[in-house]
Design a protein that fits this description.
With 395 residues, the chain is α/β, with parallel strands linked by helices. It is built from 11 helices and 19 strands. The structure holds pyridoxal-5'-phosphate (PLP).
């Protein structure tokens, strides 16, 4: 896609604006299904989409997509009110009011599964579910990280690290009458979320790939052990969830896995530029306006300082995308209001023109814009609200 293509589409539109190029989104959907295969279904990670219409579009695009992984209890409630069903909460909640509201929705027949890894989670859900006279479904989150001397390769989330921890948690669940353990989730963040083909870092890339290979073997063994323990304890598992955009190739190799999760692969933000196994299209972007030109090759824009979450580093800043070759200035980066961009290329850009950027992360883009302009075949076909545009702000 070229600078002129997008510039023409958005001529006369007020800036800044955010867009989804649906032609490229469709390609990313096709790539995702090709990487996943069809033997496992794909749960859509809502945190990386954060727009009701886009979630509906992705779910309807192919039968391989089944259900959502939500990121907060209030969000799960909001989505169930919007008509979505089959919601797996990707993270635990300790919010009494939200659990109460979700139990009422479950009582009416919706499939909403709570995430848990501690007795405190189960205790609270059980207490509230009992009040409503229901049995609340639970998914056990098991830790997928690998500990090496001086390095915790993975994230700190679940407290279930070993087969003994799994057995203890399963036995704990069995004590409570108003919950039922029905699923396992193991999210291998160190495989899914760590780039392994960054330009100019061949030594580090090699090391990361080696660590990933070792870690994949270890976590596959643990995931299977957890399944076996559940079977031995008489648990009737209805799903085993794993993976994320960055690791479909390895997660889908495991016979015990029934479903994967994908979110970021649809919009394809810049943190997913550098993986050896796959390439996605830049389906999501935003445009800011050049309002100043302090030097012939410096174009200062209004806005763009939308920094992504996680460990702090340059990879978390948005990147100028088009015109090709536009760059941020190291000492300023993307600013709260002013963002200078250096450009020496062939496009004749000037004040009033847009510069197109890509966010480092997928869903966080939607926290900065009330609407997404959906474009296809050279024109805007629809403008839809983000969660923020619907007045929602979940975490
Ligand atoms: C529990 C869980 N599953 C899956 C994913 C994968 O999401 P994505 O495809 O957006 O990287 C994440 C992302 O952080 C996650 O936290």
């Amino acid at each position: 896609m070229t600078y002129t293509y997008y510039k023409n589409i958005f001529a006369d539109m007020p800036l800044p604006l955010a867009y989804i190029d649906r032609d490229l989104l469709d390609k990313n959907i096709t790539t995702t299904i090709a990487r996943n295969g069809t033997s496992k279904t794909i749960r859509v990670a809502s945190k990386s989409v954060r727009c009701v219409e886009m979630l509906q579009y992705i779910l309807k695009s192919n039968p391989t997509f089944k259900g959502l992984m939500t990121y907060s209890a209030s969000e799960a409630l909001f989505l169930s009110q919007k008509g979505f069903d089959d919601l797996l909460m990707g993270y635990p909640t300790m919010g009494k009011q939200e659990i109460d509201a979700l139990c009422q929705v479950i009582k009416k027949g919706k499939k909403i599964v709570f995430m848990a890894d501690m007795e405190a989670h189960v205790f609270l859900i059980n207490e509230i579910a009992a009040k409503h006279g229901i049995t609340a479904p639970i998914c056990m989150d098991i830790d997928m990280s690998m500990d090496l001397p001086g390095l915790h390769f993975g994230v700190w989330r679940s407290s279930i690290f070993t087969p003994a921890d799994v057995e203890k948690f399963v036995k704990t669940c069995k004590k409570y009458k108003n919950i039922e353990l029905i699923g396992i989730m193991g999210y291998e963040a160190q495989i899914a979320g760590v780039p392994d083909a960054v330009k100019g870092q061949s030594l580090k890339n090699g090391l990361v790939r080696l660590l990933k290979k070792r870690s994949i073997q270890k976590l596959a063994t643990f995931r299977q052990q957890a399944i076996d323990i559940c079977q031995k304890e008489g648990i009737n598992l209805t799903f085993v969830n794993g993976g994320g955009t960055g690791c479909l190739e390895s997660t889908t190799q495991e016979s015990g896995i029934t479903e994967t999760t994908v979110g970021s692969g649809f919009y394809a933000p810049t943190v997913f530029n550098h993986y050896a196994n796959f390439k996605y299209e830049a389906a999501a972007g935003f445009a800011v306006q050049i309002v100043r030109q302090p030097k012939p090759h410096i174009f200062t824009c209004l806005g763009a300082g939308y920094i992504a979450s996680g460990e702090i580093g340059k990879a978390k800043q948005p990147l100028p995308y088009l015109p090709n070759g536009a760059k941020l200035i190291d000492l300023e980066g993307a600013g709260e209001v002013m963002t200078p961009v250096v450009y020496n290329g062939n496009e004749a850009i000037t004040v009033g023109d847009p510069i197109f950027f890509r966010h480092a992360k997928a869903g966080e883009l939607c926290e900065r814009f009330t609407h997404l302009h959906i474009i296809s075949q050279g024109k805007i076909i629809e403008t839809v609200p983000t969660y923020r545009g619907e007045g929602q702000c979940f975490v």
